[in-house]
Design goal:
The protein has 167 residues and is mainly alpha-helical. It is built from eight helices and no strands.
Length: 167
């Protein structure tokens, strides 16, 4: 069951919908785009430094994503004892994997110096977009997780307060 859930999380995601959308748009409008957007005039310095964006996003995700599994010292135990923790862990693993996988095509396009071709630019910006969506998913997960743990802590404190008042 965990393997199927992993595959579902990997395949059914905003990132892969975005990549599929990019592929469909490219296939349907390749001729129009190649005539409308001459990429040979891209700034060489921009191309040289373009890799900073995907590497920066991937680096942030790899560094800050750990906060999803280890939000704070006082709440880690309750999170790790949660019955559905394994689902959170799978989402975390898929997100980390995506962070690395989506950086690789960007790096290859940049390394081969084909960012100034239509297919190279499309691949680079498509995967950089998917990488950004992945990072946004981690950011929102941290916010939702922190909110849930605050509510849990408040509920626990109010329960403790009520039990101490009744004694």
């Amino acid at each position: 069951m965990k393997v199927l859930y992993f595959l579902r999380v990997l395949i059914v995601s905003y990132e892969f919908v975005f990549l599929a959308f990019c592929l469909v748009v490219y296939m349907l409008s390749q001729k129009v785009l190649s005539g409308s957007f001459p990429l040979s005039s891209l700034n060489e310095d921009a191309i040289k430094w373009a890799m900073i964006f995907p590497v920066g996003i991937a680096g942030w995700t790899l560094k800050e994503g750990v906060g999803v599994l280890f939000p704070s010292a006082k709440n880690e135990k309750v999170l790790h004892e949660w019955p559905d923790y394994w689902k959170l862990k799978i989402h975390f693993d898929v997100g980390m994997t995506n962070s690395i996988l989506f950086t690789v095509p960007c790096f290859i396009v940049w390394l081969l110096s084909i960012l100034n071709t239509l297919v190279g630019a499309w691949v680079f910006f498509g995967f950089a977009g998917a990488l950004s969506i992945n990072a946004l998913s981690f950011y929102t997960a941290k916010i939702h997780l922190r909110s849930a743990l605050i509510r849990l802590d408040d509920a626990k404190n109010s329960h403790t307060y009520e039990s101490s008042r009744s004694q």
